[in-house]
Amino acid sequence: MIARKRPRPQPDDDSDDEHRKCLRIVTFDSTIDSEIMETKSFVSKLHKVSSPDGDYLVVYRVNGHFRAFNYLMEVLHIFDRQDLFHLYDLVMKQYSEITPEGIELILWGDLKIMMESSTEENDQGDFWNNQQDWEIVSWRLYEACGVCILELKDGTVIYMLVERRYPLSKELLQRMLDLGLEVEEESTAALHLVRFIKQQLNEE
């Protein structure tokens, strides 16, 4: 009876102190549209709009609300995982028979690399080569949609799903940890991502 009443030993949380050292609390520079957030519905349509200031994309929800953007990063703060996969399906279907150009090509490429690249199945050509030359500016987590991004000094932005393995070298993974994961607040998801990266570093 005494043995039954004893609490089970809890896992050691000291390791989280080490994981926390890899987090950088920052405020993301984004404008959150509260109306879009409160009137959530499925992503249903995407099209390009040309203006004197240049081209931009507009994503529509079923309820008629829309958001204009130039790059995927600009909508990640109002997207959840379902939005992301709906957008991917929409873009791949929309450009299955026509070749995207300009700003559409950038979005198509970003989504394709994020959704289809992996260590086991990589058909992205030479994209993942020369990682030793990548100069990382930031490594950031968008928790709601489960995406982390790498921003490079040359302007390249790489989008990755947090639970998926990508063909990243151990040297690059270490540089990511050394730089620190940018988050708006500490969370279980952020600590889990740091732990996931460290596990990959420790693998033979």
Describe the 3D structure.
This protein is α/β, with parallel strands linked by helices. It has one domain (15-202). The chain is built from seven helices and eight strands. The protein has helices at 2-5, 14-20, 34-38, 81-94, 103-116, 170-179, 188-202, and strands at 23-25, 43-51, 54-61, 66-69, 136-142, 147-152, 157-161, 181-183. The strands form two sheets. The chain has a five-stranded mixed beta sheet with strand order 1-8-5-6-7. The chain has a three-stranded antiparallel beta sheet with strand order 2-3-4, covered by helices on one side. Helix 6 runs antiparallel to helix 7 (188-202). It is globular and about 50 Å long. The relative contact order is 0.14.
Keywords:
204 residues, three-stranded antiparallel β-sheet, 7 helices, globular
Strand order of the largest sheet: 1-8-5-6-7
Q: How much is the average pLDDT?
A: 85
**Which sheet architecture does the biggest sheet show?**
5 strands, mixed
- Helix content bin: 25-40%
The percent range for strand residues is: 15-25%
Q: Provide the structure class.
A: alpha/beta
The stretches of 5 or more residues where confidence is low (pLDDT under 50) are 1-14
Order of helices and strands: HHEHEEEHHEEEHEH
Number of helices: 7
First-residue to last-residue Cα separation: 45 Å
Inertia-based shape:
globular
Count of the separate structural domains: 1
- The total of beta strands comes to 8
Rg, Å, rounded? 20 Å
Which helices and strands appear, and what pairs or packs with what?
Layout (H helix, E strand, L loop, with lengths): L1 H4 L8 H7 L2 E3 L8 H5 L4 E9 L2 E8 L4 E4 L11 H14 L8 H14 L19 E7 L4 E6 L4 E5 L8 H10 L1 E3 L4 H15 L2
Parallel strand pairs: 1-8, 5-8
Antiparallel strand pairs: 2-3, 3-4, 5-6, 6-7
Helix pairs in contact: 6-7
